[in-house]
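Workshop exercise sheet. Pairs work together: one partner reads the sequence aloud, the other fills in the structure field after running the prediction. Swap roles for the next sheet.
Pair: D.N. / O.F.
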Amino acid sequence: MRWRPFALGCIAGLLVAALGGMLLFIAITSPAGTPPPGRTSAPGFTPGPSAPATVAPGETWLGDVDLSSSSVLTSDGPLRNVEATGAGVTLTADGLQAGRLQIEATLPFGSAAEQIGDDIELYAAGTLAGMRRTVEILGREVTIEATGIVRADRGQLVIEPQMIDLGSFAWIDSVASAAVRAFVTIRHTVTGIPEGLRLDEVEVRGDGFRVDLSGRNVRIG
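Structure field:
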């Protein structure tokens, strides 16, 4: 999957909005570190990472970032219900670096299918992923439908078929079952993501794949 455009669009857009809001807040409130009268830290509050002693000219450091957006649109397609959480984020002219970063988002089935390619169709089948594609087997065009378990494995999006339906070509199953299964087994390497960020978890939702990406010392730029 081409994750880099999604990650860049999501994080850059959200962080720019957050930075603008932060600067406005600083401009109209008391200096940072001086709580308003009567306000105290919530019980159980865990401080973020310690601020550096200084930052280079033109850089901005954010201790904690917690942002969300109902939709992020890029030229490669949309992401829905995006939540980004970061800590120790430094914004520079070349991009940003996050000491810790986690992104949760829904990747619509249509976008995922386009990224995987091969004219595959994807849809929800309960907690499983449904797949449909037309291939050539033994000189015949065969439409294969399957449902499979979805999981993340070493940074890859994996769909393993549990049930395969060949329709009127069911006889092929006994002749080329291994080939049929291979056509609907998806093991897709997550490519183009920033160094240090990888796919940790994925599950099927009604409108797409809910994906979790996380990492440390993540660079985006």
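Discussion prompt: Helices lie at 3-28, 109-116, 172-183. What would you look at next?
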